[in-house]
Design goal:
single chain, globular
Length: 230
């Protein structure tokens, strides 16, 4: 595997881990949350530096439905990251606590809730849109044809089960409340076992991956059929 590909996969895996840690604020404390957030932003920049070709080609070529969807998700991720960066700096008590910011705390907290929950879903959708590429790289370097054939049968079934539980977890964790800021405070259960919390959030992430992955496949199949009919 090429060093650049290893670097990309490593950064993507680290970003996914940090994203989950950030959502579990109650387990790690405020100081750790801030430092993890700062690390997430550094990885986000590194991710874009390793994908400069994408930026160079953004105005080149034909825009298919899949490419438009991917661009929209990426733009909204950028917006959510900027929102998180701004709001995180304003309410920071540790990493940026030295800055003399004393106004806009209430507004920044509301933005932080919006950025966190929308960012989590958008990054999960982004992961799903690139799922084929990720699986392809792993298969080319680690898998065998036999495993590949088995995975084609089992993967959709596992995906449906995870997505189904993800819908339940999405409702259970009151995502709609926080996505549309119906509450200015996030309920945090400090006594909840970590395994249950992260099982739910991984399922929600799996739901987003399932929707975007199979949704993009449907878009590509529809486009292919239209071409064949011409």
């Amino acid at each position: 595997m090429k060093p650049k590909i290893i670097a990309k996969l490593t950064i993507d895996i680290l970003m996914t881990v940090l994203l989950l840690l950030l959502m579990g604020y109650q387990f790690w404390g405020e100081a750790a949350h801030e430092w993890i957030g700062a690390g997430m932003f550094v990885l986000f920049i590194a991710h874009h530096l390793l994908n400069l070709n994408w930026h160079r080609n953004i105005f080149k070529g034909k825009y298919t439905i899949f490419r438009v969807l991917t661009l929209c998700v990426d733009v909204f991720i950028l917006i959510s990251m900027l929102v998180q960066m701004y709001s995180g700096i304003v309410i920071s008590r540790y990493v940026f606590g030295f800055l003399p910011i004393e106004v806009g705390m209430s507004f920044a907290r509301r933005l932080h809730i919006l950025g966190a929950y929308w960012g989590f879903l958008l990054m999960s959708l982004h992961l799903g849109l690139h799922w084929n590429m990720i699986i392809g790289m792993l298969r080319n370097n680690f898998s065998t044809k036999r495993i590949s054939k088995v995975s084609r049968v089992i993967s959709p079934v596992i995906g449906i089960l995870i997505a189904g539980y993800g819908v339940y977890a999405f409702m259970k964790r009151n995502f709609l409340t926080y996505l549309f800021l119906k509450s200015e405070f996030v309920f945090l259960d400090y006594s909840e076992p970590k395994i249950l919390f992260y099982m739910d959030y991984l399922a929600i992430m799996g739901l987003c991956v399932f929707v975007s992955h199979y949704g993009s496949k449907l878009c590509k199949q529809t486009r292919r059929k239209k071409k064949e009919q011409k």
